[in-house]
């Protein structure tokens, strides 16, 4: 099956500019996640969607970050305005409801590498 | 806040040797643990998982050990190959939801 798709793969912007990332999850996966991964660190969850509803956005800097998943499939993550410390890899992941004997496994996309100058 | 961390930032082994990557966690409520492998330029890839009601689980060439007494998790890779070179992350979650908390990663380098 096709994996999680993300675009663009790389983005360089200047501080105070805006940027948007796009994610297409694995077909049929109801849950979608956006993570921020700073160089040398593990991914940190920014926001989790269940279909088109937000489940967890407690770690999303809402003054500058926003995300939406209008039709319960694709999602966009936006940063406006960007700061130097936003330089990171932005990972999208998706998962499907677990079976009786399993837990949800999150499948990650390749990420978008953002550099803010 | 509670977090998951790794003891060693880097590990270098010879091809064919066994590798052991360690992880300490602090959230005693965690009940599900996962190891991910992340190659350069790619997203994390699921390797193996273990629930808190188990202390060992084996996969193909990989074994995960869980010691809940000391809140320690390890990943053992048998007969390490050059293709195993990557950053390895442990992640944990609790029964309240599926939010994963990742550690900072161990860079494994396999020397031919």
- pLDDT averaged over residues of chain B: 89
Q: N- to C-terminal separation of chain A?
A: 37 Å
Number of strands of chain A: 11
CATH superfamily of chain B: Immunoglobulins
Q: How many domains in all of chain A? A: 1
Word description of this protein:
The complex is a heterodimer of chains A (about 120) and B (about 110). Chain A is mainly β and about 120 residues long. Chain A has a single domain (about 5-115), classed as Immunoglobulins (Immunoglobulin-like, Sandwich), CATH 2.60.40. Helix content of chain A is about 0%, strand content about 45%. Chain A has no helices and eleven strands. Chain A has strands spanning about 5, 10-15, 20-25, 30-35, 45-50, 55, 65-70, 75-80, 90-95, 105-110, 110-115. In chain A, β4 and β5 (about 45-50) form a beta hairpin. Chain A starts with a strand and ends with a strand. Chain B has about 110 residues and is mostly beta strands. Chain B has a single domain (about 5-110), classed as Immunoglobulins (Immunoglobulin-like). Helices cover about 0% and strands about 55% of the residues of chain B. Chain B has strands spanning about 5, 10-15, 20-25, 30-40, 45-50, 55-60, 60-65, 70-75, 85-95, 100, 105-110. In chain B, strands 2, 4, 5, 9, 10 and 11 form a six-stranded mixed beta sheet that branches. In chain B, a hairpin with a 6-residue loop joins β9 and β10. Chains A and B meet through β5, β9 and β10 of A and β4 and β5 of B.
